[in-house]
Write a structure and sequence with these properties.
Elements lengths: L18 H4 L23 E4 L8 E4 L10 H11 L3 E4 L15 H14 L5 E6 L1 H12 L4 E7 L12 H9 L9 H12 L6 H8 L2 E4 L2 E4 L3 H11 L13 E6 L10 H7 L3 E6 L6 H4 L1 H12 L1
Helix pairs in contact: 3-4, 5-8
């Protein structure tokens, strides 16, 4: 359920994160233990590209450990090609959005239910990759009037065994030990060395390290690892739902990915009876990074 743009060279902040924006990431109150009360929304960080007001905006939701800049190049290209407004959003506990002890799909959906009407972007086209795809699915089921159509990128509402290593990734990131007051490049090298025994894939490590930022001489993770560790079981599953989404839906699958198995298709069609399945050849789980032109062509074809 990881997500990155064109390659890991597009940072999720890194040194570009100013101290003022970092310390804007406050801990939001949790709604836990309020007897079934709706999760309390947090004010999400976002970037909005302007376009025509008459057609539904495209709203991109990133995956686990990602951020809104994962879709920078795709968002700009689609804004030009379609003339639509395009919104990219940092999920709670990611990027520049606030930290919160609550990390459920219900909470992430509530954040968007709060944000999208404020921006005048409903109904919209929701495009979610991996974790963001499940958030988009849940929002579509809960509030179908807010969603013109849904695009879920290489994820389904059925749990997959592919993501079983994610708790170990979080534990490895939490165990990183970096001295204070060292250059950022050296800190990244140290962190990379400490992560490499568990995470063999260099590109994956470098993607995770885009979350390593400096604040007052200390290196910290911008993603809220405590919340992710506590709620990883919720992130790796989809909340059970009985209702269905009546609008058009596209499930875009990577030809080389195993995240969405054919056995998932009945549940997809139960919840999303108008779902189309489309496979992008020679693409991994990160379709937008591997095959950006094919990714954009699939979106434009579905919009047409």
């Amino acid at each position: 359920m990881l997500s990155w743009a064109r390659t890991w060279r597009l940072p999720c902040g890194g040194l570009e994160l100013s101290r003022t924006s970092f310390f804007r990431v406050l801990v939001a109150p949790s709604s836990s233990g309020q007897g079934g009360a709706e999760p309390r929304p947090v004010p999400l960080s976002y970037q909005l590209l302007d376009g025509e007001a008459g057609r539904p905006a495209l709203v991109f939701l990133h995956g686990l450990f990602g951020c809104k800049t994962n879709f920078n190049s795709v968002a700009k290209a689609l804004a030009r090609r379609t003339g639509r407004k395009v919104l990219t959003v940092d999920a709670r506990n990611h990027g520049d959005s606030p930290h919160s002890p609550d990390m459920s799909y219900e909470a992430m959906s509530q954040d968007l239910q709060d944000l999208l009407p404020q921006l005048g972007l409903v109904p919209c086209v929701l495009i979610g990759h991996s974790m963001g795809g499940r958030t988009a699915m849940l929002l579509s089921l809960q509030r179908p009037e807010l969603v013109d159509r849904l695009i879920a990128v290489d994820i389904s509402p059925v749990e997959t065994t592919i993501s079983s290593k994610f708790p170990a990734y979080v534990a490895a990131m939490r165990a990183i030990d970096i001295p204070n007051e060292v250059p950022h490049s050296y800190a990244r090298k140290l962190a990379d060395k400490q992560l490499s025994p568990l995470i063999k894939d260099l590109v994956l490590r470098q993607f995770l390290l885009t979350n390593l930022v400096e604040a007052d001489g200390r290196f910290v993770w911008r993603v809220n690892l405590d919340a992710l560790a506590q709620h990883m079981d919720k992130i790796l599953t989809f909340p059970p739902r009985q209702e269905s989404y009546p609008g058009p839906a596209l499930f875009l699958l990577g030809g080389n990915s195993k995240y969405v198995h054919p056995s998932h298709h009945p549940e997809i069609r139960r919840l999303f009876p108008r779902a189309q399945m489309q496979t992008v050849p020679n693409a991994s789980h990160w379709i937008h990074a591997d095959r950006p032109q094919d990714f954009m062509a699939a979106i434009q074809g579905f919009l047409a």
